[in-house]
Amino acid sequence: MLNVVILAAGMGKRMQSSQPKVLQTIGGQPMLTRVINTARSLSPDQLIVVVGHGEQAIRQAYDGQVDIHFVSQWPQLGTGHAVAQAVDLLKSSRENNATMVLYGDVPLVQTDTLQALLAGSDNGLALLTEEVENPHGYGRIVRDAQNRVLTIVEEKDATAAQKQIREINTGMMVAPTDKLKSWLKKLSNNNAQGEYYLTDIVEFAAKDKVTINTVAPKASFETQGVNSRVQQAQLERLWQRELAARQLQGGVAIADPDRFDQRGELMCGQDVFIDVGCVFEGMVVLGDGVRIGAHCVLKDVTVGAGTEIHPFSHLQQADIGKGAQIGPYARIRPGTRLEDEVHIGNFVEIKNSHIQSQSKANHLAYVGDADVGSRVNIGAGTITCNYDGANKHRTVIEDDAFIGSDTQLVAPVRVGKGATLGAGTTLTQDAPANKLTVSRSPQKTIENWQRPVKPSRKKP
Ligand code: UD1
Ligand code: CA
User: Fold this and answer.
1) Is the pTM of this model over 0.90?
2) Which pLDDT belongs to residue 5?
3) pLDDT, tens only, 100-113
4) Domain 2-223: homologous superfamily in CATH
5) Of 158, 198, 257, 378, which residue has the fewest beta carbons closer than 10 angstroms?
6) How many A from CA of 84 to the centre of ligand 2?
7) Measured in angstroms, how far is the CA atom of residue 225 from the centroid of ligand 1?
8) Is 186 within 8 Å of 87 (Cβ atoms)?
């Protein structure tokens, strides 16, 4: 039986936010969600989150996730007191009887490390500890001459000699459940902070001759906590460097790993190039040879092989085919499907439309709620008037149509196969196939017209 207890009752005052700290994000995902998902990867029998400050917002954020048990801690009297709130929910059986403690504000601990910690517990106590340059503020791991762990001493209770110890307690640990329950009952708050320290169970374990093992994290970002916006930004960058490194290892060319932001899943084929300042959100899939220009934002987008997205383009919930050219400055909105070799140029907005292969809209256009065939040319300034103030209507443009510049297509309307619309047309009825349709008042010239002259200034 494995229980996981995630501590998340603390205040997070230094974040200066109206939102609970553990709902603040790293890599686009709330910190607590990351810890919960990593805990889930261990298939625990019980998953408990201890909440206090901001508990309503936290409980609401995970509403309907029935595998999570929330327990309240009021007031917050320390980490030992926090775990004690969960004891009634801790399951135990004779074998594999373990309770793991994690922190909701230490978001990037990885499954591998927790598995190593679990393996290290071996029915005893396992502590995730780390040697650091500057141990200030952390609990120190005190060992005897045989290098056995004796106790953890908090910064505020440490002697000058203990403060020299550079091995610190990260806070994450695995304890044998039944023993943990008995140790929690013995905790006192007779210390510098007047708190019930979870770390005091280490001394009890040593006295009870329970084996105490220590395990180190693979990467230092795994154990970093977030208490302020500064720490959040620092950890975000460490995580983004890690994600960039993983992409580079997978063969993706990233112009600058320090200017790369992945806030979801990013799956890349071979020879993908990503220029600086791009943001990837949700689920993004890039095919072989895709090139993403500088400062693009892609959210829930699939891009086919060989397609180029030029700088400053924004794409959301769209499916782009192979060999397409998008941008610069293109806006591709939800519900868009662009087939192979479509060209979408600067200041073109496409929404909820299907555009078939080799069609082009190269400059300044709005195409919304439209079905566009193949090899269609949409001229500059073309607008689908899809909205009548109450309802959205579709525009259909069949294969090989040519839409002259500055055309308004007042939907619902259909342009037939091979039809040509003259520049400036306001199309209110269907345009027949293979013919020129134009709506334009005849051009006239006023012969004796005189340009007005400015009144001459009177001299004083
Ligand atoms: C704790 C450890 C310390 C370790 C450090 C690592 C103890 C006594 N000390 O210290 O050895 O080096 O973490 O960061 O355990 N929390 C609650 N309820 C409480 C108190 C805390 O849920 O009553 C939660 C906090 O929200 C936080 C976590 O527990 O997520 C740790 O609390 P924090 O106050 O940051 O612990 P430290 O004093 O830093
Ligand atoms: Ca802390």
Assistant:
1) yes
2) 98
3) 999 999 999 999 99
4) Spore Coat Polysaccharide Biosynthesis Protein SpsA; Chain A (3.90.550.10)
5) 257
6) 19
7) 10
8) no
